[in-house]
Automatic annotation (TrEMBL):
This is DNA primase. It catalyses: ssDNA + n NTP = ssDNA/pppN(pN)n-1 hybrid + (n-1) diphosphate. Contains an N-terminal zinc-binding domain, a central core domain that contains the primase activity, and a C-terminal DnaB-binding domain. A zinc finger (CHC2-type) spans 43-67. Monomer. Interacts with DnaB. SMART domains: TOPRIM, ZnF_CHCC. Keywords: DNA replication, DNA-binding, DNA-directed RNA polymerase, Magnesium, Metal-binding, Nucleotidyltransferase, Primosome, Transcription, Transferase, Zinc, Zinc-finger. InterPro entries: DNA_primase_DnaB-bd, DNA_primase_DnaG, DnaG_bac, DNAG_N, DnaG_primase, TOPRIM_DnaG_bac, TOPRIM_dom, Znf_CHC2.
């Protein structure tokens, strides 16, 4: 409906913003100046004790200095009453004594038709409620009693009963002058294909009236009393009044309760909504026999910024929750999301409340998951990520899911949240004391017995710490390169606690702005610890630290040091295998010579960092000079010969 020019201006001119807001707030008269229309109160849109909500009655506007809510009388009514724009206009116009503009003839005809059908529906509601008190409804009353519904609940939710007869309702309404075409148009009867009078849609069912956002009866939901009925639950067919994908059960009452600050809960069925409401969770709604639709999500977000989806605690309920996630992701906006309260296995909200009361339900609501975590569960539950290919597949799936979020800022925050969850998943998969690495890094590390032997004890820790420190310092100097080396950084063990914290902080902030990364590192390590680390002799001389901003130099440094670290790990593994071959069979001279070779390797690695030397590639990429390489080849050859001879 369009409004004529000047109508809204006149409405605002006749409306007192202070009067409209005064119905919802308690003015702070010490701070307010009523004569000037300068009014202050605690804000109705967020919890606070001080008066930061300001109304300028002369200009007709409000503004909260706490939550920054602002607008005029129309927007205030929309927000506090949870109504649409035209509904807010109609409310204020009625209060101001202004008649609403005339509609065009076709629109008026359609509105009149809807009003007639709505009246027919109200008559049906009253008829079915009376039928619930008859002897024919004894079994239905017993069922409702078993489900915990007392007389008060039956009254509040207007629950009724459709008798088993084929034309019970039709005969009753025809006797009141309702023609057959209106019965059919209202969805109460169906035309017979045998030339007989229309027959009732609902028979031998408990009936739950469905009302629209303005409280008008538009449809019914019916639960069959006959266990053999093909449809346990049956909703009215779609009509001029009823579009099942565009409304929610209990929406009118839930809108009012949500406006008063109650948590908005999306449950699965009528009985869940009733149980929640009776337990004190009045802002409960349910879809109407179909999966949640985009329109229903928008209805939820009009009532609350973060509705809670509380679905049954079984596989079907979880699948339904996943479908809601898929539907909601492209629709998300900053401040508009969903949380998911997962019921205990095999229970719905009705079961839980009857077993544990409102307190049990509240505990589940308090533990509701943000949508990002349910998305993560959807992509990871029941899967194993024990190979690079599987991890890459997870990364690809997450990128695709997050990519449908339209808001760039929100998409970034989802990416950060899921990256954090990924970090914890892969870190927890490693043995205690290990970094966030792959299985290959574990296999390359020396075995426990080797670490205690003379072969690697000297220089091992110092060698590894030196490499790791240089790598991490270079990444701190140029955080822009973190995405390129993320997987290698994950695979890097850090025996030193300070280095491990530095590594983990860098990984948690991959892709973040450089200044933010550095600030996070300073906060985690402390400035003094960080300065001590960066001022060490072998770190301070790194070219990329001496020339801040040289990103390419940092990239080359990290790549080279990672290669050296990998070679060193391979060398340690080869020595460990050689020592294992010698256990119990080698003489002291051979063991001593192998230990000397290990010591020579450690010395060679340190000399390489201090001066340019003529190097060759040693075992698994380790750097040695030619003389050391020749001596080691001879020694390892003898070990292999002895091993063959023993066989």
């Amino acid at each position: 409906m369009s409004l004529p020019p000047g109508f809204l201006d006149e409405l605002r001119g006749r409306t007192s913003m202070a009067q409209v807001a005064g119905r919802k707030v308690l003015w702070d008269m010490r701070k307010s100046n009523q004569g000037r229309g300068d009014m202050w109160a605690p804000c109705p849109f967020h919890q606070e004790k001080t008066a930061s909500f300001h109304v300028d009655d002369r200009k007709g506007y409000y503004y909260c200095f706490g939550c920054h809510a602002k607008g005029d009388a129309i927007s205030f009514v929309r927000e506090t009453e949870n109504v649409g724009f035209m509904e807010a206009v109609e409310i204020l116009a009625a209060e101001a004594g202004m008649p609403m503009p005339e509609r065009d003839p076709r629109a008026q005809q359609k509105a009149d038709r809807r009003a007639v059908l709505s009246e027919v529906m109200e008559q049906a509601v009253q008829f079915y409620r009376l039928q619930l008190r008859t002897s024919a409804a004894a079994e239905a009353r017993a069922y409702l009693e078993r489900r915990g519904l007392d007389a008060g609940a039956l009254e509040r939710f207007e629950i009724g009963f459709a008798p088993p007869g084929w034309q019970t309702l039709g005969d009753h309404l025809r006797g009141k002058g309702v023609p057959d075409d209106q019965l059919i148009a209202a969805g109460l009867a169906k035309a017979s294909d045998k030339g007989r009078a229309p027959y009732d849609v609902f028979r031998d069912r408990i009936l739950f009236p469905i009302r629209d956002v303005r409280g008008r009866a538009i449809a019914f939901g019916g639960r069959a009393m006959d266990p053999g009925d093909k449809a346990k639950y049956l909703n009215s067919p779609e009509t001029e009044l009823f579009d099942k994908g565009r409304t929610l059960y209990n929406i009118a009452a839930a809108r009012e309760a949500a406006g008063k600050g109650r948590p908005l809960i999306l449950a699965e069925g009528y009985m869940d909504v009733i149980a929640l409401s009776e337990a004190g969770f009045g802002a409960a709604v349910a879809p109407l026999g179909t999966a949640v639709t985009e329109t229903q999500l928008q209805l939820l977000w009009r009532m609350a910024d973060e509705p809670v989806v509380a679905l049954d605690g079984d596989k079907a309920g979880l699948r339904a929750a996943y479908r809601v996630v898929d539907l909601a992701l492209p629709l998300l906006e900053a401040g508009k999301s969903l949380r998911f309260a997962l019921m205990p296995e095999g229970k719905d909200p009705d079961d839980l409340i009857r077993a544990e009361g409102a307190a049990g339900m509240q505990r589940v609501l308090d533990a509701a998951l943000p949508m990002a975590k349910l998305l993560w569960r959807q992509e990871t539950e029941g899967k194993v990520f024990d190979s690079p290919e599987r991890k890459a597949a997870l990364d690809k799936a997450i990128r695709q899911r997050v990519g449908v979020i339209k808001d760039p800022s929100l998409r970034h925050h989802y990416g950060e949240e899921l990256k954090e969850l990924r970090w914890h998943l892969f870190r927890s998969a490693r043995p205690a004391g290990k970094g966030r690495g792959s299985r290959r890094a574990d296999e390359m590390a020396p075995v426990a017995g080797t670490k205690a032997s003379a072969l690697v004890a000297e220089g091992e820790i110092a060698e590894r710490r030196l490499r790791e420190t240089v790598i991490l310092a270079a990444m701190f100097a140029a955080p822009e390169i973190l995405p390129e080396f993320e997987s290698q950084l994950e695979a890097m063990d850090c025996a030193d606690g300070t280095l491990a914290r530095l590594r983990d902080t860098l990984l948690r902030h991959v892709g973040a702005p450089s200044d933010a990364v550095r600030d996070a590192v300073r906060e985690t390590l402390g400035r003094e610890t960080l300065e001590t680390l960066l001022s060490a002799r072998h770190v301070a001389v790194i070219p990329c630290l001496r020339k801040p901003g040289e990103v390419e130099l940092a990239r080359l440094t990290v790549a080279e040091e990672l290669a050296k670290l990998s070679a060193w790990q391979g060398w340690q593994t080869e020595l460990a295998e050689a020592e294992a071959d010698l256990q119990g069979v080698a003489d002291e001279a051979l063991t001593w010579r192998l230990a000397q070779a290990a010591q020579a390797r450690n010395s060679a690695g340190r000399r390489q960092d201090e001066a340019e030397t003529d190097y060759e590639i040693g075992p698994n990429g380790a750097h040695m000079d030619r003389e050391e390489r020749s001596a080691l080849d001879t020694l390892l050859g003898q070990i292999k010969f002895d091993k063959t001879r023993r066989r």
